[in-house]
């Protein structure tokens, strides 16, 4: 597997279970890259949806991908605090083109005060039937919802107090 280098500009691509492209973030700066973790930063980056719609992110974000966990975390830095948007999906893969993962619809949104909600369960069930997600995938995803919930409650990894300060400063240094 190709690992991007620190300071390299990469794309992030999410796919659906059936292999179709879901969404592409055009420019993210790599802040850390190991076999297990990729951390990137972006701000006002172009996002292209599978139907061709385009939009630009509104605030700086720090992106966390892991090679063992079935989730990734986008931490958005807003005036009223840090919002985390957690995508349940496969561990990342990377090549010269992009950091890639399969998005499995379920998301957890974490608010600055620590409250969090599981989102898109209806969409998950619809796609689970439509794309025939195996039962093993469902068990893995449900387990990772639990793991992610514990990380949020315990303020672990991307939810820790210093995480944003450290990685946002590095992002500003690189840009």
From TrEMBL:
It comes from the Bacteria. The keyword Metal-binding applies. NCBIfam families: PRK13662.1. It holds the Pfam family DUF402. Has nucleoside phosphatase activity towards nucleoside triphosphates and nucleoside diphosphates. Its EC number is 3.6.1.15, 3.6.1.6. Residues 18-155 form the DUF402 domain. The active site is at residue 23. Mg(2+) 2 binds at residues 105, 107, 120, 123. Mg(2+) 1 binds at residues 87, 103, 107. This is Nucleoside triphosphate/diphosphate phosphatase. Its cofactor is Mg(2+). It catalyses: a ribonucleoside 5'-triphosphate + H2O = a ribonucleoside 5'-diphosphate + phosphate + H(+); a ribonucleoside 5'-diphosphate + H2O = a ribonucleoside 5'-phosphate + phosphate + H(+). Belongs to the Ntdp family. GO terms for molecular function: magnesium ion binding; nucleoside diphosphate phosphatase activity; ribonucleoside triphosphate phosphatase activity. It is an enzyme of class 3 (hydrolase). InterPro entries: DUF402, FomD-like_sf, Ntdp-like, SA1684. Keywords: Hydrolase, Magnesium, Metal-binding.
């Amino acid at each position: 597997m190709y690992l991007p280098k620190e300071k390299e500009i990469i794309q992030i691509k999410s796919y659906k279970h059936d292999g179709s492209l879901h969404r592409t973030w055009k420019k993210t700066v790599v802040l850390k890259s190991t076999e297990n973790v990729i951390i990137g930063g972006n701000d006002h980056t172009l996002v292209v949806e599978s139907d061709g719609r385009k939009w630009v992110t509104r605030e700086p974000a720090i992106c966390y991908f892991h090679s063992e966990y079935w989730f990734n975390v986008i931490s958005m830095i807003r005036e009223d605090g840090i919002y985390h948007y957690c995508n349940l999906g496969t561990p990342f893969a990377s090549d010269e083109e992009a950091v890639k993962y399969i998005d499995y619809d379920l998301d957890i949104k974490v608010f600055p005060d620590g409250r969090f909600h599981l989102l898109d369960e209806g969409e998950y069930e619809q796609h689970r039937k439509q794309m025939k997600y195996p039962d093993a995938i469902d068990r893995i995803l449900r387990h990772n919802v639990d793991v992610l919930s514990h990380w949020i409650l315990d303020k672990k990894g991307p939810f820790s107090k210093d995480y944003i300060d450290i990685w946002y400063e590095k992002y500003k240094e690189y840009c």
